[in-house]
Amino acid sequence: MVNFNQELSMFDYLAPLVAFVAFFGIVFIMLFTCILWLCVSDVERKDAMKKWDHCKVPAICKHIAKENFRPKNRSTVTSPAH
After folding, report:
1. Domain coordinates in residue numbering, the chain
2. Can you say whether the dihedral through the CA atoms of 55, 58, 63, 64 is positive or negative?
3. What is the pLDDT of residues 8-50, one digit of tens each?
4. What is the pTM of this model?
């Protein structure tokens, strides 16, 4: 007679979760690096920021909008003195 009992380890239970995280992690990286940083021109980025200025957004969003979402070197970023 054939025995169909299986002994599953913790890896067997976590493998689908690891595959899910790996797949969507790669998609996330591709989305934000390739599409948003390489395919969006400066003109399109500035147009989007002008549209944001017409809305009532919190002060931090306006500050981000003025910076045009440009990544900066941490050594050159300074906080304004208040």
Report:
1. 9-39, 41-73
2. negative
3. 888 889 999 999 999 999 999 988 888 877 887 888 878 877 7
4. 0.42
